[in-house]
Design brief:
Blueprint: E1 2-9, E2 12-21, H1 26-36, E3 42-53, H2 55-70, E4 74-78, H3 82-90
């Protein structure tokens, strides 16, 4: 299960992720997030409550990062747990996903 909350401040948005971003939750998360960030320049994903991320979840994060980059915006992931950081590093995506 994945729960998200959003905070918007002008053209900046923070999406707080709680739970698991996996094959069961990534598609809905991706669709909703892409819809919600249409007018957003700076996107922050707060991963403090993200317990697990699968390859499907990584795909969603990459897509959000790419979407933001293509429109001249930013996407950063903050407060990622050691587990999530390790998955990003192990998969070689630390150059694509911006962990802060």
């Amino acid at each position: 299960m994945l729960e998200t909350t959003q905070t918007v401040d002008g053209t900046s948005m923070t999406i707080t992720l709680t739970g698991r971003l996996d094959v069961n939750t990534s598609s809905d998360f991706e669709s909703q997030a892409l819809e919600d960030i249409t007018d957003i320049t700076d996107l922050t994903l707060d991963a403090a409550g993200l317990e697990y991320v699968s390859s499907a979840g990584l795909r969603a994060l990459i897509l959000l990062t790419k979407t933001q980059s293509e429109k001249g915006g930013t996407c950063v992931i903050v407060n990622a747990s050691e587990n999530v950081q390790q998955v990003v590093k192990t998969t070689g995506l630390s150059g694509v996903l911006h962990l802060v």
